[in-house]
Design goal:
By secondary structure, the protein is mainly alpha-helical. The chain has a domain of 123 residues. 59% of the residues lie in helices and 0% in strands. It starts with a helix and ends in a 23-residue tail after the last helix. 43% of the residues are buried. The N terminus and C terminus are likely disordered.
Length: 310
């Protein structure tokens, strides 16, 4: 029943590990990952690096979290060999082992969560040519910790994927919707898009809600992180619009405006469509007589999307 999702999932089956290279931003005066050449990365692997990259490696060896994350990102994004990927894996594993007991209130929590997600990605696919084989259940456990305990949106999205595809966890649209809704509230564009597409189409255990689906696809496009992500989301949105009816499009515009401040990009203004006669009890109750209460309070809290079992 979730075959439609498979085509989406392959595009975003894991986090682009190139993104980890900027996690520490400008907090340390270390070399920017984007400015370090492949030759310098090779020097790190050979243990003969000098200058800023050598200082980065030394700081990572001392246990500096920012240095470990940057160096792991370099190995993951810049290394084409399995040996480089293993070095990234080992660094992410070290971070997870060292900081497994960190609390959500710790200022480092979001960075630790990113290491859980990165390690989960490796266990989800394995590393070709190495002893690290795919372990879907372990990947799901890593995502679950970052998603539930640390509240990480990327982990919530990844865990939702696994529930939709039945990877290492029971296949469940009900659980997937809840995780997607949590990530969507954090302006996670991919989660907003997948949830929007799921609500637009409906499934055996997910009630079809076309207005909410179209609204989420619209807002997801605003939050896209790059051009490739924006094109993927726009393809979903255009496909849904082509099959939609006028009252569904009008309702989606109203919802987009209602949700704009809470889950959309604040600089974007969405015009509110002129009211149309109510077409169902649900749409009228969701919109009429309400002020802009926000994403959760108008009913998209995960549970509202679930089809009640017969």
């Amino acid at each position: 029943m979730y075959k439609w999702f498979t085509g989406i999932a392959v595009v975003f089956v894991g986090v682009s590990l190139a993104g980890w290279t900027g996690l520490a931003g400008g907090e340390k005066r270390m070399a920017s990952a984007g400015n370090i050449s492949t030759q310098k990365l090779g020097a790190v692997e050979a243990g003969r690096a000098a200058g800023p990259i050598s200082a980065l490696k030394q700081a990572a060896d001392r246990g500096d979290l920012d240095a470990q994350l940057k160096l792991a990102g370099l190995y993951a994004a810049g290394g084409k060999t399995s040996g480089s990927q293993l070095k990234a894996f080992d660094l992410f594993q070290r971070i997870v082992d060292t900081h497994a007991e960190i609390t959500p209130r710790d200022v480092r929590a979001s960075r630790i969560a990113s290491a859980f997600v990165a390690l989960g990605n490796y266990f989800r696919t394995g590393i070709s040519g190495t002893a690290i084989k795919a372990d879907k259940r372990r990947a799901a456990n890593l995502y679950w910790h970052a998603a539930s305990y640390l509240g990480d949106a990327e982990a919530q999205y990844s865990l939702a994927q696994m529930h939709l595809l039945g990877e290492g966890v029971p296949r469940s649209g009900r659980l997937a919707v809840n995780w997607l809704a949590n990530a969507a509230k954090k302006r996670h564009a991919k989660a907003q898009a997948v949830l929007g597409d799921l609500l637009w189409r409906g499934a055996e255990d997910v009630r079809r809600q076309p207005r909410k689906g179209l609204a989420l696809l619209t807002i997801a496009g605003q939050n896209a992180r790059d051009e490739a992500e924006a094109r993927w989301i726009e393809t979903l949105r255009v496909g849904a619009l082509a099959q939609s009816q006028a009252h569904e499009r009008a309702g989606a515009k109203r919802l987009s405006a209602l949700w704009q401040s809470s889950i959309g990009r604040s600089s974007v203004s969405v015009p509110v469509a002129k009211p149309e006669p109510p077409v169902s009890v649900e749409s009228d109750a969701a919109l009429s007589g309400r002020r802009a209460e926000g994403f959760t309070n108008i009913g998209l809290d995960g549970q509202s999307a679930l089809r009640q079992p017969r």
